[in-house]
């Protein structure tokens, strides 16, 4: 792992890249007795590969406010790395392309914009083991703590040394031990690998699915599978159909990572009111602040309401979050709900083109607080969940079929029955 000096340089370089004015003055690097130099056998991190990325969050009085530092590997061919390096502070952002041939040059990129000068030796240095989370992975690290002089002040520091973290730069904090003022804090906001893919020939591993992570960028992303089938969100015996309208760049109705396994379900066309029920039991959270669209092409309908999902409910069973969206109205309050209980009426609130129920299942990341996802309108888990839906075709016994293999069509001609 890189030295603290390099780690500081990495994130503080972001401030210079973005043009934030005067360059922040970094606290000095603490002494690291007994730690091998970066690039040696003792600290050599796993090789970076195409698609690897890292996001650092930087705060503190020495950083002139908060900003994000982002780096990603564009190519790892021919013994060299092509990196896309950038920073973002509010609405201002800057990016640049850099080429490196080894760990030393990688560290030099981060250190090129600022100089970190040590000032005396670190005192009262202690070390302890700790797990540091980076994206969906955790790394066993050694946290080095102590005191260090800087600009006439004595600061306390804590720096994580994580030899198996590919980016070689771990989290750290410098603070005033008397006032507890944070001079500089660097956290790993996210890290992982995104491998570009194409819907016609995705080439993703069996445990990943091709999904859009931005409007024009798709990647192979990990997904989970739910063992217990979900019931259709309609009363038993009701006719329903699934529909798929090609709206995205991938000619799919649902192509973004949070909705890659989502389905749109419609009830009987002749029914003026389609009652929506809970497909599972659990804890229900409600958002009902959107206006339902009236008839006519010029009628008011806020497509961004509820982050585009309109009125919706989210049901959490302790493992997965099931969202039912675009409701005309919600008929349930926050609390516990049983499978089959009424939750609302199918509608076109939010970004919906016709009356239907949008159902998608996601899962929180390991260690993530699900309450934040449940309580924030439109938020879902970052892990898409492939589910099966219990149904019956006319004159056939009930079965459970994967939602991504259903023969959905825009006119919904193929119908099913809710068992």
What does this structure look like?
The structure is a single chain. The protein has 419 residues and is mostly beta strands. The chain has 2 domains: 4-193, outer membrane lipoprotein receptor (LolB), chain A; 224-417, Distorted Sandwich (Glucose Permease (Domain IIA)). It has 3 helices and 26 strands. It has helices spanning 4-18, 103-111, 370-375; strands at residues 52-59, 67-75, 81-89, 92-100, 123-134, 137-150, 153-161, 172-175, 182-193, 195-196, 208-214, 217-222, 224-225, 239-243, 263-266, 275-277, 282-287, 311-316, 321-330, 335-337, 342-346, 357-363, 383-386, 388-391, 399-402, 415-417. The strands form 4 sheets. Strands 13, 14, 15, 16, 17, 18, 19, 20, 21, 22, 23 and 26 form a 12-stranded mixed beta sheet that branches. A hairpin with a 2-residue loop joins strand 5 and strand 6. Helix 1 packs across helix 2. The termini are far apart.
What attributes characterize this protein structure?
7% helix, Glucose Permease (Domain IIA), single chain, mainly beta, 419 residues, 3 helices, outer membrane lipoprotein receptor (LolB), chain A, disordered N terminus, twelve-stranded mixed beta sheet, nine-stranded antiparallel beta sheet
Care to give the gist of this entry?
By secondary structure, this protein is mainly beta. It has helices spanning 4-18, 103-111, 370-375, and strands at residues 52-59, 67-75, 81-89, 92-100, 123-134, 137-150, 153-161, 172-175, 182-193, 195-196, 208-214, 217-222, 224-225, 239-243, 263-266, 275-277, 282-287, 311-316, 321-330, 335-337, 342-346, 357-363, 383-386, 388-391, 399-402, 415-417.
